């Protein structure tokens, strides 16, 4: 049976292991993965169906093994242990060229060309490309990538994400080849037939192709709100809001509250001094249809969506 | 004391500045009890056996090879097809093969009797050939019905025949980095890069560089060492597997093997902190002839293979910069891990950017965790300029320089990799010494032959294979070069209290020489005959079976 082989590359800290962990736990069909360091893979003990030799099988049908110093051998062991698996993902080393690994792997019998996917940590990319020690290594990895998986997008300011997107474009990687880690994993690893990331699917319109990649809104606060109501409201925000920050005056406290939320991480702290109250949110399209429940005490401000600069 | 032995030699160079020359020496229990003239040894003569075998010989401290691989001892199980004449462990001189036709004939002659067995050869040196490079057709002329693979001297390139291509699944259509093609796009059979070469070795059979170490291999290496006057040598990338450790131990317990062994744990065999644990497990196995505790890191590739990391403006011929085998941030973490565990680091850095990144990482680690007398050593360290050497000196790092490279690849460095100006500072021993960097000189055997007298000659004459002098101002004196291959190397191994000079209390380890290297014309250093070695007081004649 022909098996398709993808290689997941990316510099150190790009989020390769986290991606592997997500693929293993949520693959729609069983896949095989070959990793550098099995110890780094976060497989729940309860999910391990059998562990024989250096190939571990999971209850969902996925299998995982460590590459050691023999990629061909690892592919063989994995295929023998899980003959039904039709897709194998190989994790490249942080300094290796994933295209080169794909070339070597494809010398194995009955392996079809899959994808070379390079994970890019959007927080680190600009620094890496400015670092004379690292720039050429990172560029070399990206130069022959089929697709990029953008990681850590949920923990950086939108401007940083946008900068990374622009840098990748400058390296010749169009938005149709960029995918957001997490929500677009499956699309990114889907066989090449027409899948494309949200960056292109929804954003490429008008003169400025990425002006509406992200939206930003500012809501000034006119009336005070209780802390409990604020927390409930924050908890109910839709997924596409990447980041929210601001200072909110609360009815049941002396001091206003500093709200900071990036992805799933959220903090509410006492705000220093007396500053203008309101919230700024940054998110991906579509613009959420947010209702500001005035029962909480917020005035309903007319949101002004504006492109991020 | 019945086991006291008196040695009287024509002259003994001690490398001890307080008493540099002697004629008489008493050794007991493998160590030097007295050394000097007759007066110095007189109180110990009672009952001493007199050993006159060295009466007409010159004794030096046994040479210390700070960067070699015991795989040299295994390599001779396979045909040698290098350009230069080379000594095998059995003493036979293998004539250098000067044309592709000679290589093809040599391979045919050395084919294993088993008609299906692969023909695996090593040491191929096509850079010295005029005319076209070796092709698939050349090796198909050796055999078409069995695999033929020839590893180049640098270890980074391999030529194969059609049978190998078929076995490993390479077709004309293959899109494959490192698969060389001629002007018409045809595959030449030349393969580059560790992934591709590694696959060949796995598919057609392990050669000298892929086989595990065994005791016989170490014994063969020890025979070569004895012929070269070497009494202590490193095995500078070791897997520290049960098999290797058993081989070291077996050899270490055999008094007839004239070699002290200093293997270094190769970091890439041990993910995470498992290397630290492995070193701790093995600590108890160390002894007088087996020293454990060193760790080898490999930061970049080779300059002549264009895989070394060079600083701006990069390679002279415009080739893209080389490869990090360890990313700089990971390097700092690895250095910290092993440094804090008390290990002694030997770090392969060929290009100056790799050296610089290592120095920068070392600066930060040592600022956080100062440790007096760490003696971490940059291995090869071929390209630092004066400014980088000043930083190296400030950190107390040692450098083990690859002086043999000047001869074997100096012309390549002028023409392709470094250009005529930077190539002058290849293995800049004078600059290093001027700034107080402790240095050693090495062969990297089997990359170049084991032979400290030749290595010293390289550092003294700095002459390439074509006769060009590279960096006249970087020359060492004969005395400095001989110190670097004895006490200098011992210092980089943290063994200078035991070996490297002939002083009371240190091991009775000597190189037994026919001529005085301090007196011959420096040009003739490699011609100084090595009669054998003494290790722990036991004499081994060159050519005697180990």
TrEMBL record, chain A:
Q: For the CobW/HypB/UreG nucleotide-binding domain, which residue ranges apply? A: 7-163
CobW C-terminal domain location: 221-284
Question: What Gene Ontology terms describe what this protein does at the molecular function level?
Answer: hydrolase activity; nucleotide binding
Reaction(s) this enzyme catalyzes, per UniProt: GTP + H2O = GDP + phosphate + H(+)
Gene Ontology CC, one term: cytoplasm
Keywords noted in UniProt: Chaperone, Hydrolase, Nucleotide-binding
Entry-linked Pfam families: cobW, CobW_C
Protein family per UniProt: Belongs to the SIMIBI class G3E GTPase family. ZNG1 subfamily.
Task: Briefly state the protein's biological role.
Answer: Zinc chaperone that directly transfers zinc cofactor to target proteins, thereby activating them. Zinc is transferred from the CXCC motif in the GTPase domain to the zinc binding site in target proteins in a process requiring GTP hydrolysis.
Q: What is this protein called?
A: G3E family GTPase
Automatic annotation (TrEMBL), chain B:
> Which one of the record's GO molecular function terms can you name?
hydrolase activity, acting on carbon-nitrogen (but not peptide) bonds
- InterPro entries xrefs: Amidohydro_3 (IPR013108), Metal-dep_hydrolase_composite (IPR011059), Metal_Hydrolase (IPR032466), YtcJ-like (IPR033932)
Gene3D superfamilies assigned: 3.10.310.70, Metal-dependent hydrolases (3.20.20.140), Urease, subunit C, domain 1 (2.30.40.10)
The record ties this protein, via CDD domains, to: YtcJ_like (cd01300)
Keyword set, alphabetical order = Hydrolase
Tell me which residues make up the Amidohydrolase domain.
Answer: 57-538
Protein name according to UniProt: Amidohydrolase
Species this chain originates from: Endobacter medicaginis
Traced from the root, the source organism's taxonomic lineage reads: Bacteria, Pseudomonadati, Pseudomonadota, Alphaproteobacteria, Acetobacterales
